[in-house]
Each structure stands twice: as C-alpha cells, then as structure tokens.
Amino acid sequence: MPALSPENVLLSLIVVAPGFIAVYTAIIFGGLKESLSDGRLLGASIAAAFIIDPLFFWGYTLFGGEIADPTAAVGLFFEGGFRPERVLILTLLSVGVGISGAVAVSGDFTYIAREALQRQFDVNSHPHQPWEGSLKTANLVRVLTTESWFQGYIAEWSESGNERQITLDYPAEWDGENWSEMGLAKMIFFEEDIKQIHVVNEVNHGGSRAHPAGDGGDEEDDDGSDSQ
What we know:
The protein is of the alpha+beta class. The chain is built from 6 helices and 6 strands.
C-alpha cells in the first residue's frame, strides 16, 4: 500500500481522529483551562485512540466481522457502499470516552487514588502548590487583607500559577469583637490584598453551611498571630 494512498490516509484518520475527538470532548466538558502544547495534545490523542480503536474493532468482530489487515479496517466503513452509521458509532464512542475523561478530571480521581495509595503505604505528599491543595477541600475560610479579617464560604479560587484570587460566599467582617454581616452574596479578594488565609473547616470534615457571621468562633488575634 503506497505511503500516500487514499487507504493509508483514511486509515490514519480512523486511527487518530477518534483520539482528538475524545481529548477535545474531555477539555470542553471537564472545564480544563490549561493550554496543551501540540506535543501533549498529540500524545493524549494517541493514548485515547489506543482505547477507542480496540473497543470499536473488538465490537465489530463480536458481531461477526473480521479484520485481517489494515485495508480491511478501512473497508469496513465502505462495505457495500459508504456506511455512515459505523462512522457515527465510532464518533459516539469517542465522545463517550471523552466524557468519561471529563468526569475523571472534574472529580479529580487521580487525587483520590493518590490519597488512597498514600494511606496504604503510610506516606504523605501533595503534588499541588499549597494554594491549590489547601483550598481543594476548604469550606469556611478566613482571609486577612491589608484592611481587616473577612470570613465566608469559599466559592471559587484561581488555579496554581495564576494570579491568586479568591471568592467568598456571604462574607462577614471582624469588627474587633464579632463577625458582622456585610449584606453581600459574594466578595472577591485579589492577590495584592491577601496577606493570609485560614481554613476554619473542610467540606469532608463536618463543615456546615450556617451563616459565617455566626460560625467559627471569635477571632483570637486579628493581626494574624494565630496562623496555622
């Protein structure tokens, strides 16, 4: 089969294209903001194709088909004429693998698996920067700014490597004696204003959703001397 024959081009598309579909599906549904280099994108696509293509061809052989050589792999899309339903099945399989990848990314399954292995082997390490790792499970937090202490439920925070920003739901401000409600739904803090962050409780350690003005107790020292 010549290097630039139509069969060779089609085979390349059949092998590689499903991987690209799966990777882009994972990026879109997983909400990934990180820009992938061409090399990493190609590597991820080839890895995904090594999952998708064997599944597709295995399913084809289960229903009585036979693939003896690469030409047969191309030919199964043109048996008795063009077979768009088989292209659709391959595309849907690619999207399904991509959505599975998006679920794994969104649920941070690698982080969960790593924690399980660390507990098994009695080790403790974290691949993320403290900014990302500490806020991952945070629920109620206190933020010391250049002006005052603020407390609220963490809603969003920037990714590691970007300018540090954090958003609190229903923020309250420390007035020297108590936490005072501010009457705001959200409050955004920017890196130049943040001096320190305390995690009061975590979502997987009994963190409640009572109003932050009445949660977390008194601020023992509003100059930051009670830092962890």
